[in-house]
Amino acid sequence: MAKPVIITCAPTGGIHTPTMSPHLPVTPDEIAQASVEAAAAGAAIVHLHARDPETGRPDPRPELFQRFLPRISAESDAVVNISTGGGLGMTREERLRAAVSASPEMASLNVGSLNFGIFPMRQKYDRWKHDWEPEFLESTRDLVFKNTFADLEYIVRELGGHHGTRFEFECYDLGHLYNLAWLVDQGWVGPPFFVQMVFGVLGGVGADLDNLVHMHTVADKLFGDDYEWSVLAAGRHQMPFATQAAMLGGNLRVGMEDSLYIGPGELAPSNAAQVTKVRSIVESLGHTVATPDEARSRLGLKGADRVAF
């Protein structure tokens, strides 16, 4: 029988801006509520960023994370996954601050550098809630999202070695799978690996089903039985790719970090609504949804009692 599907929800991220949706969680209370509701709807993992509560700009300060992490932990059993991607343009040290401070069960790790282009979204809006938004989007026309081999080594040694944190390895292209294999060959990370295949970001692999199948095939060759795989896709590709992942025996990620919509032209009213929709798809395919404890067991996590929040 197929294993239960692990659903990850990424409630806010560091890409979309407040102008784009009135439902995007910004304040600590909104991020906490969105996470708790997503967990109640069926998300086993919540993948978290923080934002300045006044402006909605991505913000790496640990004190902001500590305004919502304890509430999520108290009101749900979800695995908390803290981003080390932070916000585009942040330094490595800024991106790591929250995870090092909170010592979570899980953290994301982008496994390679890439051009990360969100500047086309600027063309869709004439008015902005905050002055920083159009400048932020346009800056990605000349931005390399830096994740060098030195960065990867530093992060896995710091978080993995010193905190026992395990990783959601975000792979935006085929070469990123080989970067992860290099980390494995160095002995710096061990199985089970949680490989998050990312599709549809300008600068990364396109949202084409052939790409999904090929990346899954290559990951099988590289990691065999030592990994769990998951899929996320940006924008309108979110639900179709989540469905394909479930059909192929994988796991999946939804949330407003990846898409603000729940259907064509329809803004998602909440992150929980996206989780509810994808859960209904998963269950209609004859699969079950993994609980947080099932996810912990399969991913080899240290447990919610060993975090710093």
Task: Name the features.
3-keto-5-aminohexanoate cleavage protein; 3-keto-5-aminohexanoate cleavage activity; metal-binding; metal ion binding; 38% helix; zinc; TIM Barrel; 309 residues; alpha/beta; two-stranded antiparallel sheet; 11 helices; 8-stranded parallel barrel
By CATH, the topology is TIM Barrel
Q: Low-confidence parts lasting 5 or more residues at pLDDT below 50?
A: none
The strand line-up of the biggest sheet is 1-2-3-4-7-8-9-10
Number of strands: 12
CATH superfamily annotation: Aldolase class I
Return the string of H and E elements: EHEHHEHEEHEHEHEHEHEEEHH
| Number of discrete helical segments | 11
Number of discrete domains: 1
Radius of gyration: 18 Å
- Terminal-residue CA separation: 36 Å
InterPro entries: Aldolase_TIM, BKACE
Keywords: Metal-binding, Transferase, Zinc
Cofactor: Zn(2+)
Pfam family, one: BKACE
